Amino acid sequence: MDSSENFFASAINKNKAIVNLEELSLWLDNIQKTSDFSVKEIPFEELDKWYFDESGSNLRHESGKFFSIEGLRVQTDFNGVMQSWDQPIINQPEIGILGIVTKVINGTRYFLMQAKMEPGNINILQMSPTLQATKSNFSQAHKGKVPLYLEYFIDASKSTIIVDQLQSEQGGRFFKKRNRNMIVEVTDDIVVHDDFCWLTIFQLKQLIKIDNLINMDSRSVISCIPFGNEVDSIEDFIAQAKLDDKYDLGTMKSIVSKKPLHTTDEIISWITNEKVTYHLNVKNIPLNEVNGWQITSTEIKHNTDNRFSVVALKVTANSREVASWTQPIVKDLKIGLIGFLIKTINGTDHYLVQAKVEPGNMDFIDMAPTVSCSNYKELEQTNRSVLFLDLFLDDQKTITKYDHLQSEEGGRFHFYQNRYMLAHLNEGIEIEVPSNYKWMTLGQIMELSKYGYFNIEARGLLACIDMFK
Amino acid sequence: MDSSENFFASAINKNKAIVNLEELSLWLDNIQKTSDFSVKEIPFEELDKWYFDESGSNLRHESGKFFSIEGLRVQTDFNGVMQSWDQPIINQPEIGILGIVTKVINGTRYFLMQAKMEPGNINILQMSPTLQATKSNFSQAHKGKVPLYLEYFIDASKSTIIVDQLQSEQGGRFFKKRNRNMIVEVTDDIVVHDDFCWLTIFQLKQLIKIDNLINMDSRSVISCIPFGNEVDSIEDFIAQAKLDDKYDLGTMKSIVSKKPLHTTDEIISWITNEKVTYHLNVKNIPLNEVNGWQITSTEIKHNTDNRFSVVALKVTANSREVASWTQPIVKDLKIGLIGFLIKTINGTDHYLVQAKVEPGNMDFIDMAPTVSCSNYKELEQTNRSVLFLDLFLDDQKTITKYDHLQSEEGGRFHFYQNRYMLAHLNEGIEIEVPSNYKWMTLGQIMELSKYGYFNIEARGLLACIDMFK
Prior knowledge:
The structure is a homodimer. Chain A is α+β, with helices and mostly antiparallel strands. The first copy, chain A, folds into three domains: 3-38 and 94-229, Nucleoside Triphosphate Pyrophosphohydrolase; 41-90 and 281-331, no CATH class; 249-279 and 333-462, Nucleoside Triphosphate Pyrophosphohydrolase (Alpha-Beta Complex), CATH 3.90.79. The first copy, chain A, has helices at 7-11, 21-34, 135-138, 150-154, 201-207, 216-222, 234-244, 249-256, 264-277, 376-382, 389-392, 442-450, 456-464, and strands at 38-42, 50-52, 59-61, 68-76, 83-91, 96-105, 108-117, 125-128, 131-133, 160-168, 178-185, 196-200, 280-285, 293-295, 300-302, 309-316, 324-331, 336-345, 348-357, 365-368, 371-373, 398-407, 413-414, 417-425, 437-441. The A-B interface holds A 95, 161-166, 180, 226, 229, 264-266, 268-269, 272-273, 275-276, 362-363, 450-451 and B 95, 161-166, 180, 226, 229, 264-266, 268-269, 272-273, 275-276, 362-363, 450-451.
């Protein structure tokens, strides 16, 4: 086995950090302090180059590029309940790149991360992948600079591709949006530009335990790291991991286990059955025909004021491809809850996966976390129930393994945070699992995820799972 | 290992046939002779319950069920050449079941096959899966009988599911059509109805070497048989296979090899790159706006008379769910060529897979055979070239491993046959492989195919691969 391929082993070299976490914190503070980045909400009419088109008030950029805000009419019989609604949706047909450069230096693997300001982030500055570029970015639709490090992702002679997958984004907010998630390995020396730094996997797993620091795009790419690929003999590996005393054995076994509750063929059959049983009809409609929503001078909002809205921002920056710009953005101040329930079955951790319909999904049903709901606090107050939500908030029944606020992507979402949780069911607590849920090992989730089966919320949560003690 | 799971071993019991091939031939002749099944082409105006709708002449059934013939406007930049065209397309949004019942009797695995008449088959009678039913069939939209054996596919208490996958059909003729491909195992005795018989895998692989006998739906389901799933130790297995002298070792190694030319991650990256590089735009349009085509009283046809057409049939039968009916059908008298090129690389057979855009694909690019072209004889005459086609017809460069005519599905296609070929490149013959082709082992093809990556032509050809001597 080539040591450069070994993600587990290189990840636990705790002392091999190039910058330690205190230095990182100071570095981020300094970037924050010395930056000139301001964001303010503006009326739609002050948008520059963006306009409501004549045909039906869809909100577009005059170049025809970037994205547009359109209307969607939705009807589904999912779970046997006929539901229909209209909503605004982001249409961004271009496929961008979310990519991390990785390098093994003196036997330790590092990932090149960027401190990046995004207008929608609640704290502006978060850690993003090395490259986070829409096609309009790198084909220079807005005539800015070429993104740094782009060449390592598009020129095969400069790197070795480790991960390169099409992955979806929020099916509730985007219409069939996918990005290319990439990890590329370099061996030559490369320049570390301002605002970039090398971090180990161990450090990333520490930093992901800080609220709103590792951004959504980073979490999506980190979820694709092929842990376990390098494991030839599972028994030897588990035996060694026990000796090392550096790994969380429950998590490790869940990644490499060959004895899952359900075979992969059974899981494929289950997904087939869900897709055959239920239906989704969506129809693109003009924004001004979206029932239940209104367009004001400053907002596209639901009549109840109880959903997300679309607003306009003016951004002034000195650290981006262009120095200042205006843009529409989806705003959501209410915090959702996204969680995987974990149960030890036959000695191996299994995660409860939900088959979930969302209107913008590529193939209408994607694999989602056990719970994924918006505005969970209001749910509590109004007694509306979301299946399994109570288990996450009940320390008699579960042990919380992870509980942090994370932001959704700051280029499209304004102030939008979710509470990400991993909750391990206590021994002896039995739960009934309806037909649209399935227990899977981490290895199975990672395998299916390669083929694009898992939604962004599930992948974001996968990235939070720490296999190190 | 449970013997009931062992598809390889149970398949080579040549002497364990319940009916031998001569008996089968007599049995089929008898069904053919005693049947009352007639098909004739009629003008569209004689169609019963089918009509050209007012909005744009789409051809529909008055129940709103079954399928319709609509128009499609297509534009793609695939392979760097901008192309656009209009065409009729079949829209059949319902997902049906193609299913085979399997049973292990005295240690040998059998598959329950049906002798079935279809109006479009050039020879009327072919062998179909146990169940071949559209949702309209089994929800009885046409008020006929419930299909035989349906219960084994929809009632979990009656069988164990072995295969259950959503698989696509012709992306050049159907708009995003998928069927559920199933293999279910029974242990109880079940009644073998008239026109049904138990066949071994060995027999199926023999029968598939007869022109136009194993129908398209059967080939699609047979391609999903999980050969190799049961293999724990590849080395032991290959050693045993060598001793047995019953297996084609090149094929066996290609199924179980762990040393393919490209890793699965590399193949996923390649597919990602193809999907990011190229684009497909399709727009559903009314049939009477399809440029280059005309609707006559008896045909929807291309102005050049050089493509497929849509005609109407009147069918009289005594062996179907309903006794007689009329229907539109896609007619194509010209024979296409569908072939995989095989090459031994590092001692293992690799198959050359093409990434191919077709307008009706679920996700625009599917994995296809090396060559897949219509009317290949005309191509020869007109000097229009199809990449690699010449290799299939040149016995200096390749050894032909398989070469038979097979029919496309007789419920939707009239007289439509393709020449299916497997051609093994001779040693020393080097070919240049463009970026939209990739060498894969059979094991890799079968793995990706589980997730719906391979088109119907590729799967049909997979079914023809014989791993037995």
